[in-house]
Prior knowledge:
Elements: E1 10-16, E2 29-35, E3 43-52, H1 57-60, E4 81-88, E5 98-101, E6 108-112, E7 117-119, H2 135-147, E8 155-158, H3 164-175, E9 180-185, H4 188-196, E10 202-205, H5 211-218, E11 223-228, H6 232-241, E12 242-250, H7 271-275, E13 278-281, H8 291-303, E14 311-315, H9 320-329, E15 335-339
Parallel strand pairs: 8-9, 8-11, 9-10, 11-12, 12-13, 14-15
Antiparallel strand pairs: 1-2, 3-4, 3-6, 3-15, 4-5, 5-7
Helix pairs in contact: 2-3, 5-6
Amino acid sequence: xxxxxxxxxxxxxxxxxxxxxxxxxxxxxxxxxxxxxxxxxxxxxxxxxxxxxxxxxxxxxxxxxxxxxxxxxxxxxxxxxxxxxxxxxxxxxxxxxxxxxxxxxxxxxxxxxxxxxxxxxxxxxxxxxxxxxxxxxxxxxxxxxxxxxxxxxxxxxxxxxxxxxxxxxxxxxxxxxxxxxxxxxxxxxxxxxxxxxxxxxxxxxxxxxxxxxxxxxxxxxxxxxxxxxxxxxxxxxxxxxxxxxxxxxxxxxxxxxxxxxxxxxxxxxxxxxxxxxxxxxxxxxxxxxxxxxxxxxxxxxxxxxxxxxxxxxxxxxxxxxxxxxxxxxxxxxxxxxxxxx
Length: 341
């Protein structure tokens, strides 16, 4: 460490103090000042520049058995991050390189080089590797094309469509020849964004009336694919509008993440018998084999401006928790990003 005298002695990191019941509260968390981590053999020390906060993190705050291990109490919380390598004890990654890794919610992270992916800040803005060209984008790509078996001519409905994943699902469907793309969002401004900027054929504000009625008006000929980010009344409405052979890919159910009682299931599941429809959940972690194909296809769309994306940027590591709570409230348009000073 002697050749890097400018490094601080400490690094700030967020810890989970107690497991939230219902909506997370500020007292469930603490911003802790800890000794600067020292990278071991095969590790790199990264100064984080951008952090990701995502809805799935709410599930990891619970001790309930899930697809990912719960966050440990009184330990730094992991999450997607991109930053600059300041010390390297690993071959193939040098100081000055930028890497995508999972040591988020903190200023500095010692990361196994095997778990760090080099990214090119010249090819795309660094923050894009947390969103449109990162896990968020791959989630949209894999869920639509593999899980929902999208094909040209399908009519597609996306809930949470102004969010980071939903906005990309709708645009990929449009670029690949959907007959109609419909989105739902929680404000009139977001509805306008979906149609005017992202090219959705129709969109509606789910707060303006029953979702089932608004969906029928927006898709009078029904839907072939539903990409579910919300669950609840949206899922029931989609089943009601599903065409024969329709497919539903369940990515998330943000409407129920903070419930303390089980949410009622859709009341019209019997309709899947008539339509021969299917509902399938998926996790992006099962589809990393698609990453090269995804970057090859979507990268040029982003560079050419054919696939548009928005980011909501919150500045300062001290505001990471507020940014996360904002995601749960739906404050963000596109990907919620925390920019470190």
